[in-house]
Specification:
Layout lengths: L1 H7 L2 H14 L5 H12 L3 H14 L4 H13 L3 H15 L6 H24 L3 H13 L5 H13 L3 H14 L4 H13 L3 H14 L4 H18 L1 H5 L9 H11 L1 H5 L18 H9 L19 H14 L24 H9 L19 H14 L2
Helix pairs in contact: 1-2, 2-3, 3-4, 3-5, 4-5, 5-6, 6-7, 7-8, 8-9, 9-10, 10-11, 11-12, 12-13, 15-17, 15-20, 18-19
Length: 390
């Protein structure tokens, strides 16, 4: 009866019934909610709010009281608090069509308020508040591409790229053709070294912006990192190896010196008879094709053969010569190495390796060309050479 009276506009009757019910059933939330709605019908928000609050103390999921509080804060244009009750109402009613439009309106206004608060906090240098409001706003507008990008940019500006990623991903899902979103997501994936996920996005960027060399270089890096990941277990062993093999050196050159992987080749691939299923097969084929590590006369590579310091210096020298960088190296005229005479087969490569600091001399001044190269030495030498060739 009371609800019907309210709907009919008979506020006095509704209030009398609600007061009577409250006296008879003081433990009920409904009479309190009725009195709150009667106050709202008179535009008396101040009186209505306490009734709804008391009703919610009795029954926290009371639909009438939740809806009442939503309308109280809506009337005050406090959209954030209105949304708090709207979301509780939504949870209780499971998206009842009676309230869905009103809840959506409140959510939009609340999100606008939250974004304004976030931007204000940014201007004031309040990182905690800006972070809070961006999280709140973005969580309630999952398909708002601009907002998701703005939230992602905020976390990225704080150096929290991993936290920025979900926002960029949501923006990309909403609008995969937005180039700004595509760039942001690709960059974030690269920065977090998620190369497999970044690769298709980088491929799109290369096609869309072919003049942007940066995308080409990042795509090449992604390819390298994916290849490195595919052979990660084997490759990881190199830096701890007591000695390195020819196959391991080929992998080091390919994966640590980007210019080698990027170098285009023409002509048929070299014939190599003993690679079979070797984990570094792709890398070996490339360095052989470039002439960096020569084959033996019987067309074998012998990937498991241990590399000695003299041969390693020769391989590094081949890389220098291939990219015409040996001309930039000035060999000190007074450089003498007791155990490497001018007649030694690797005399010139060893002098280059020593001058560049790729393979330093022993404490006694000797080079020891017949000594095996260990993993840490090989990795350090190739990385140093790679930096020189950038």
């Amino acid at each position: 009866m009371a609800w019907e009276s309210l709907q009919a506009g008979d506020i006095d009757t509704a209030e009398r019934i609600a007061e009577s019910l409250q006296v008879s059933y003081p433990q009920w939330a409904t009479p309190l909610a009725l009195r709150g709605w009667a106050a709202l019908a008179r535009d008396d928000v101040l009186t209505a709010a306490p009734y709804f609050q008391e009703a919610l103390k009795v029954a926290p999921q009371h639909v009438g009281a939740l809806a009442g509080m939503m309308w109280v804060y809506r009337a005050r244009q406090d959209w954030v608090l209105a949304l708090t009750y709207a979301e509780k109402l939504e949870a209780v009613l499971a998206h009842s069509p009676d309230w869905v439009n009103e809840v959506d309106l409140i959510r939009r206004r609340a999100v606008e308020t939250m974004v304004e608060q976030a931007r204000l906090a940014r201007r004031q240098g309040d990182v905690a508040q800006a972070t809070h409001w961006y999280r709140q706003a973005a969580a309630r507008a999952l398909t708002d591409t601009r907002l998701q990008v703005e939230a992602g940019d905020w976390f990225r500006s704080l150096g929290q790229v991993q936290e920025a990623l979900p926002y960029y991903q949501l923006a990309y899902q909403s609008d995969p053709d937005d180039m700004q979103v595509l760039r942001r997501l690709a960059e974030a994936l690269v920065e977090t070294r998620q190369w497999l996920q970044a690769k298709p996005l980088l491929e799109r960027l290369v096609r869309a912006e072919p003049s942007q060399r940066r995308w080409v270089e990042l795509l090449q890096t992604a390819d390298l990192e994916i290849q490195r990941s595919a052979v990660y277990t084997e490759y990881q062993q190199i830096e701890r190896a007591p000695y390195v093999t020819r196959g391991q050196v080929a992998a080091l050159l390919y994966l640590e010196i980007p210019r080698i992987a990027q170098e285009p080749l023409s002509g048929p691939p070299p014939i190599i008879l003993d690679l079979e299923d070797h984990w570094a097969r792709t890398f070996i084929q490339k360095v052989v094709a470039m002439g960096l590590i020569p084959l033996f006369d019987n067309h074998t590579f012998q990937p498991h053969r241990v590399v000695q310091r003299g041969e390693f210096a020769f391989i590094l020298y081949n890389v220098l010569r291939y990219f015409d960088r040996d001309t930039l190296v000035k060999i000190p005229s007074g450089l003498t190495i007791p155990d490497v005479s001018p007649l030694h087969r690797y005399y010139v490569p060893i002098r280059y390796a020593v001058t560049l600091g790729l393979l330093p001399l022993e404490p006694d001044g000797s080079f020891r060309p017949g000594q095996n190269v260990n993993g840490p030495q090989a990795l350090r030498a190739v990385q140093t050479l790679g930096n020189l060739l950038r």
